[in-house]
Amino acid sequence: MPRAIISPSVLASDFGQLTAECKRMIKGGAEWLHMEKIHGRNMKAGVAISPDTPSTAISDEVANAADMLLVMTVYPGRGGQKFIERCVPKVAELRARFPEKDIEVDGGVGPKTIGVCADAGSNVIVAGTAIFGAEDPTVVIQQLKDTVNTAQATKFTL
Ligand SMILES: O=C(CO)[C@H](O)[C@H](O)COP(=O)(O)O
């Protein structure tokens, strides 16, 4: 017999407190969170995993419904943290499973760490300190782009 699955729609939540709202629903007994209407509002939907969450936590079904998969390379909360390199293999695992999906890294990413991220297959780069703290952000942005584009062109052509 199919079991009851309660899926609170985040559209009714406080968007400014989305993480806390989701935690509150899960604590309250919800099995799923309903995100599908995001697309109906002309927005993109992403799925994020924290450093201690394996890539396998993202099922094929969830990944296919998402526009982007985010591998956090720091513990979420604040900028300026040290890049956690052990997260990088998760990027490679997801890229192998989803060759055409946008895969993002976020946390401690900059000129010194972009190489491993790009080589693993990430193509969307969140960088705070490295860009805003740069003397010339244009140079850093271009470097990040070039590194990703080169890796994509040489390692990930379909
Ligand atoms: O989402 C974040 C932390 O939760 C930050 O955006 C991320 O850490 C990027 O900042 P930085 O490049 O300074 O590490």
TrEMBL record:
Keywords attached to this entry: Carbohydrate metabolism, Cobalt, Iron, Isomerase, Manganese, Metal-binding, Zinc
Pathway field: Carbohydrate degradation; pentose phosphate pathway; D-xylulose 5-phosphate from D-ribulose 5-phosphate (non-oxidative stage): step 1/1
GO BP, sorted A to Z: carbohydrate derivative metabolic process; carbohydrate metabolic process; generation of precursor metabolites and energy; nicotinamide nucleotide metabolic process; purine nucleotide metabolic process
Catalytic activity: D-ribulose 5-phosphate = D-xylulose 5-phosphate
Sample GO molecular function, one term: D-ribulose-phosphate 3-epimerase activity
Keyword Isomerase: yes
Bilayer-spanning residue ranges: none
Cofactor: Zn(2+); Fe(2+); Mn(2+)
EC annotation from Swiss-Prot or TrEMBL: 5.1.3.1
Matches recorded under Pfam families: Ribul_P_3_epim (PF00834)
Entry-linked InterPro entries: Aldolase_TIM, Ribul_P_3_epim-like, RibuloseP-bd_barrel
Function, in words: Catalyzes the reversible epimerization of D-ribulose 5-phosphate to D-xylulose 5-phosphate.
Complex formation: Homodimer.
Family from the record: Belongs to the ribulose-phosphate 3-epimerase family.
Protein name listed in UniProt: Ribulose-phosphate 3-epimerase
Organism: Agrocybe chaxingu
